[in-house]
Amino acid sequence: MFGLTVGRRASAGPAVDDDTLVAAQRLTVTRGQQPVLCNVDVAVKAGQVVTLVGPNGSGKSTLVQVLTGLIRDHQGQVRRRDGLRVGYVPQHFRIDRNLPITARRFMKLAPRGRHGNWDSAVADAGVAHLLDRPMQGLSGGELRRVLLARALLSRPHLLALDEPAAGLDQRGQGELYRLIRHIRERYGCGVLVVSHDLNLVMAATDQVLCLSEGHILCRGAPESVRAHPEYLALFGSHLGPETAVFPHAHDHEPGEHCSHG
Amino acid sequence: MDDFLIRAMLAGFGLAVVAGPLGSFVVWRRMAYFGDTLAHSALLGVALGFLVGLNINFGIVLVCGALAVLLVVLRSRQRLADDTILGIMAHSSLSLGLVALAFMEHVRVDLMAYLFGDILSVGQMELWWIWLGGAAVLAVLVLIWRPLLTMTLHEELARAEGVPILPLQLLFMALMAGVIAIAMNIVGILLVTSLLIIPAATARLFARTPEQMAVLAALLGCVAVAGGLRGSWNWDLPTGPAIVVAATLLFSLAMVVTSSWRLVVRREQAADG
Q: Cys bridge to B151: A38, B73, B158, B243, which one at CB 3.0-4.6 A?
């Protein structure tokens, strides 16, 4: 099974042109009997920000893990550019409080942490003032920046961020996406972002993939996806920027999809 | 000082120096009960040793290692909670060991020595075992320190960075099995994990880096061994438990010192502000 997958990947796969960092074709992942991803096509090019949106359990994180090579047990073809360096920022990150460690030491533990791109990674992620703080004392936003700085140490071609804005307030989220844009410009890397809220990533995104139950419902530029009927059916138009992002009173039962206008 | 006291001291130090760094990982990886379960199965290793005519230390490493692998497998495909599985394994393997030893009528074993340790009767040969085994465990631990630490911090991140997770996990279990075999001579099956956990927890109160914590835990373990032996000598206490009590006293002392220090600092800050 495993060998077959590798063999298939080595054979003729999706065309990988110069700009393409990673591409998947007819990607299917099953866990037990349950399909997690179903016939997914996706490609990330250098300098491109691709955002995956979708409800919980739609397969976003799995897709990221396949594209970054964390999950190798899949069907379909995945092609990565030779020598592709991936920087990965996981969704959940909490360090046991029994483990005393500063941000600096945590970053130095990365494979290229000792000689890599240290100075500019620290400057670009804006973590110079955090380096000597214990990891457990960092706020959610500060922790995300340290993780980002650590991912930048290897000068990644592809940066994969799983729910980078989770747990941040609106201001923190805005700052984070500004930072992602800045890093994309500076490093020319492709960025793969997972988010459950399209509005947060609108300004920073080139392409949006909307996932539901392992299928890609729609894709395209953020504006076009936002107007797509499948997207509206999934998320409801109340999430649109013309109305408030914060929750407001609904006149229907919870669990029902709303479709005002 | 008498010969047997010197040997006991050397044996205890040998254990403490290994138990400090390894115990730090046990604390970080939240594996205290895992270690306890492995330790409980050591008696089964003793029985196996007698049964097959194997060196007892080998028997222990073998049984602990097998149980560790079994636990890793069970954990990955279980329907029961971790602590339930550990509870079942710990007590059933201890009971199984006791029953197996009872069956061997020709073997007379000092059960108390296995359960609570008998550091004062450590001989030349056992001392070699402790120091060579301890040195081997420590050498492997130093070699895998960086990837093991990365994996402990965040398994998924480590995997993304190419750390071989399963081999490291198994190797770590093997190291634990080795230390348990060493520690059984000194503090006994029931108290093994205390020397892994208590000095490491004490060191945590002062350490700023993982390495500081590991080294400090080793030193504190040595102090506990010396203190326990001293107490045992002066007041005729059982030595294994006396060592654990000494470690606990150190921990309590450290708690009081660090808490009051924090209080003082906070007061000063309040006064300054």
A: B158
Residue of chain A nearest B148, judged by CA positions: A109
Distance to chain A for B144, nearest Cα, Å: 13
B258 in A contact zone (CB under 8 Å): no
Pairing mode, strands A215-220 and A207-212: antiparallel
Dihedral in degrees, nearest 10, Cα atoms B33, B35, B40, B43:
180
SS3 A10: helix
A21 Cα to chain B: minimum distance (Å): 17
Q: What is the mean pLDDT of residues B125-139?
A: 91
Q: Is A106 on the interface with B (CB under 8 A)?
A: yes
Across the interface, do B209 and A110 touch by the CB < 8 Å criterion? no
- How far CA A109 is from CA of A79, A160, A245, B158, in Å, comes to 29, 19, 39, 10
Q: What is the pTM of this model?
A: 0.82
If contacts are CB pairs under 8 Å, which of residues 103-162 in chain B contact chain A?
146, 149-150, 152-154, 156-157, 159-162
Is A213 strand, coil or helix? coil
pLDDT of residue B110: 80
Cα-atom radius of gyration of chain B, to the nearest Å? 20
Q: What pLDDT digit, counting tens, does each position of A169-199 carry?
A: 778 788 888 888 888 888 888 899 888 766 6
Q: For residue A235, what is the enclosing H or E element?
A: helix A229-235
- Strand residue runs (E) in A85-173: 86-89, 158-162
B120 within 8 A of B52, measured Cβ to Cβ: no
Q: How confident is the model at residue A11 (pLDDT cuts 50, 70, 90)?
A: very low
Distance from CA of B162 to the nearest CA of A (A): 9
B158: closest chain A residue by CA: A110
- Strand-pairing partners, residue A42, are A24
Count CA atoms closer than 13 A to B177's CA, side-chain side: 24
Residue A34: per-residue pLDDT: 79
A-to-B residue pairs, Cβ atoms closer than 8 angstroms: 51
Please, what are the domains in chain B? Answer: 3-272 (1.10.3470.10)
B12-60 confidence digits (pLDDT tens): 999 999 999 999 999 999 888 888 888 888 888 888 888 888 888 888 8
B172 has a pLDDT exceeding 80 = yes
pLDDT confidence of residue A248: 39
**Residue A125 confidence (pLDDT) above 90:** no
Q: What integer is the mean pLDDT of A158-169?
A: 83
Q: Of B157, B162, B210, which is closest to A99 when you measure between CB atoms?
A: B210
Question: Collapsing DSSP states into helix, strand and coil, what is residue B226?
Answer: helix
